[in-house]
Design goal:
globular
C-alpha cells in the first residue's frame, strides 16, 4: 500500500468513541445589535446578497440567451471554457476554502464576474473581441469554483439540522432576486430595441452591481465567531498542511461513499440551462420577450425554493427521512411535467430554421406568447427545487463545515463537467432536439441514481460519525451539543 493510501486510512479512521464521549459547550448568543448582526439568518442573507450581485447578474445575462447578443457562438464557447475550468478548480476548491477561510475564498471568487461582464461590454463596442469573452470565461470558471464552494460550506453549516431547508430557501430567494433585478434592468432598457441584442447601458449596470458584490464579503462575520440559534458554535476545522487538505477529498469519498450516488444529479444541475436559455429563450423570442422571460424565470425560482425548502423539507411534524422522500417525489414529478410540455414546443422548430435571417421571433404581444412563457416559469420552479433539494441532501449527510465544503466542491465540479459538455455541444451547433433529449434523460437518471442514497443514507438525525471529516493532530473534532437543559456559558 502506498504512503498516500496509508495516510488516507489513518485519516479516515478516527475513534468515534473519543469524539462521542465529549459534549460541545453551549454558548450564550450576543445581545443587542450584535445579536441581530451575528444571527445566522443575517449572515446567510448577506451571503445571498453577495451572490445577488455577482452570480445573480451572471444569471440575468446568461438567461437572455447568447449573453444578450444576436450571435450566441462566443457566449457558448465562453460557457464551455468557463465550466471546464470550474470543473478543475471545483475539485480542489473545498480544500482551499478550509485553508484560507470562507470569507477570503468568497471574495476571491467574486471579481471574475465583473471581468466576464466587462468582456461582453467590450464585444458590444468592438465586435471582434470574442476571444476576450472566452478568456474571461476561463478566469471566471476558477473564480466561481471558489465562490460557490465557500457559499455551500457557509450556507450548510450555519443552520441547525431543523433549519437547513429554511436557510437554503432564504439564500436561494435572495440570490435569485439578482436574476430578477438584472432581468428587469435588461427588459426595461431594451423594451423598444429592434436590434435583438442588449445595449451598452445594460452591461454597464450589471458591471456596477458585480463590483459592489466584490466588497460585500468584508461585511460578513468571521465564521469562527458564529453561534447557531441552539447555542452551538459553528465549527471551522483547521488542517495542518496542504497535503492533508487535498487528502481530505479522498477521505470524504472513503468515509461517505454514498455521495457517489449523487454525482449524476450533480452533473445534471447546470446541464439544463443550455436548452432553456440558448435553445429556447434565445432561439425563438425577440430581445424584449427574452428579457421578460428571464424576469419571470428567476422570479419563479424564489417561490420554488421557498416552497420545497420551507413547506416540504423543513416540516416540523414529519421525520427527516420521510421529508427526503417527499422532496424526491416532487422533483421527479416536476421533471416530467416540464419536459413533456417542452417536447411539444421543441418539435415545432430547428436550429437551421431559427438561424435564417429575418426568422419569426415571438414577441410579448403575440397570441402564442402566454403559453410559451409559462413553460419558462415552470422551468424556474424545477431549477430551484432541484438545487435546493441537492443542497439539502448534502446537508443531511453532515454538519461538519470541512466535510460540507468538500461535498460542495464535488457538487460544483461535476455540475461544471456536465455544463461544459452541453455548452460545447451547443457551440458546435448540435441540433436542438438532441440537446433537449439529453437534458431530459440526464435529469431522470440523476434522480433515479439518488433514490438509493436517499433510502439508505438519509437518517432522522445526523450521527457523530457523520460530523467528522478526519481526526488528526491540529484538527478539532466536531462534538455533539449537550442537552438543551444544560447551563449556558
Amino acid at each position: 500500500m502506498s504512503d498516500v493510501q496509508t495516510e488516507i486510512e489513518k485519516l479516515g479512521s478516527g475513534s468515534s468513541e473519543d469524539s462521542g464521549s465529549q459534549r460541545a459547550e453551549i454558548f450564550e448568543r450576543p445581545t443587542g445589535w450584535r445579536g441581530y448582526y451575528e444571527h445566522p439568518i443575517t449572515q446567510v442573507s448577506l451571503l445571498g446578497f453577495v451572490c445577488f450581485m455577482c452570480p445573480g447578474m451572471f444569471n440575468a445575462l446568461t438567461g437572455l440567451g447568447g449573453g444578450g447578443q444576436v450571435n450566441s457562438t462566443d457566449q457558448a464557447r465562453a460557457s464551455a471554457t468557463l465550466y471546464s475550468t470550474f470543473a478543475f478548480f471545483g475539485f480542489f476548491a473545498g480544500s482551499v476554502n478550509n485553508v484560507i477561510g470562507p470569507r477570503r475564498t468568497l471574495m476571491l471568487g467574486t471579481w471574475g464576474y465583473s471581468l466576464y461582464i466587462a468582456a461582453f461590454l467590450a464585444v458590444n463596442i468592438h465586435a471582434g473581441a470574442g476571444a476576450f469573452v472566452v478568456t474571461a470565461g476561463a478566469i471566471l470558471g476558477a473564480c466561481a469554483a471558489f465562490l460557490w464552494t465557500a457559499q455551500g460550506s457557509l450556507m450548510m453549516s450555519y443552520p441547525t439540522e431543523a433549519q437547513k431547508g429554511m436557510f437554503i430557501s432564504i439564500f436561494w430567494a435572495i440570490f435569485n432576486l439578482g436574476g430578477v433585478v438584472g432581468s428587469a434592468i435588461s427588459f426595461g432598457s431594451n423594451f423598444n430595441s429592434t436590434s435583438n441584442s442588449v445595449g451598452n447601458g445594460t452591461y454597464v449596470g450589471f458591471l456596477i452591481l458585480t463590483l459592489i458584490g466584490v466588497f460585500l464579503p468584508l461585511l460578513m462575520v468571521d465564521p469562527d465567531k458564529m453561534i447557531r440559534t441552539d447555542g452551538t458554535r459553528v465549527n471551522t476545522v483547521r488542517h495542518p498542511s496542504w497535503k492533508t487538505e487535498f487528502l481530505s477529498l479522498f477521505v470524504a469519498l472513503k468515509t461517505d461513499p454514498w455521495v457517489i450516488l449523487l454525482f449524476p444529479m450533480f452533473a445534471a444541475s447546470n446541464y439544463f440551462y443550455t436548452w432553456q436559455f440558448n435553445d429556447y429563450n434565445g432561439a425563438i423570442f425577440n430581445i424584449r420577450a427574452r428579457g421578460l422571460n428571464n424576469f419571470v424565470y428567476w422570479t419563479s425560482q424564489i417561490f420554488g425554493s421557498i416552497f420545497i425548502g420551507y413547506f416540504v423539507l423543513d416540516q416540523k411534524n414529519v421525520r427527516r427521512r420521510v421529508r427526503a422522500f417527499y422532496g424526491w417525489i416532487l422533483v421527479f414529478f416536476m421533471i416530467f411535467v416540464v419536459h413533456v410540455w417542452a417536447y411539444f414546443y421543441q418539435k415545432t422548430y430547428t436550429r437551421v430554421e431559427e438561424a435564417v435571417k429575418g426568422a419569426y421571433k415571438i414577441d410579448i404581444l403575440d397570441s402564442n406568447y402566454p403559453s410559451h412563457v409559462w413553460l419558462m416559469i415552470f422551468y424556474g420552479f424545477l431549477d430551484s427545487m432541484w438545487q435546493t433539494y441537492a443542497y439539502w441532501l448534502m446537508g443531511a449527510m453532515s454538519n461538519d463545515p470541512a466535510k460540507l465544503a468538500v461535498f460542495a466542491g464535488f457538487y460544483k465540479c461535476l455540475q461544471s463537467v456536465g455544463a461544459a459538455s452541453v455548452w460545447a455541444a451547443d457551440s458546435a451547433n448540435v441540433p436542438y432536439m438532441n440537446i433537449f433529449l439529453s437534458t431530459w434523460c440526464l435529469t431522470v437518471a440523476g434522480m433515479i441514481c439518488a433514490a438509493p442514497m436517499v433510502y439508505l443514507r438519509v437518517t432522522d438525525h445526523t450521527e457523530i460519525e457523520d460530523e467528522v471529516l478526519m481526526q488528526v493532530a491540529g484538527v478539532e473534532p466536531i462534538e455533539p451539543p449537550v442537552a438543551a437543559t444544560a447551563q449556558k456559558a
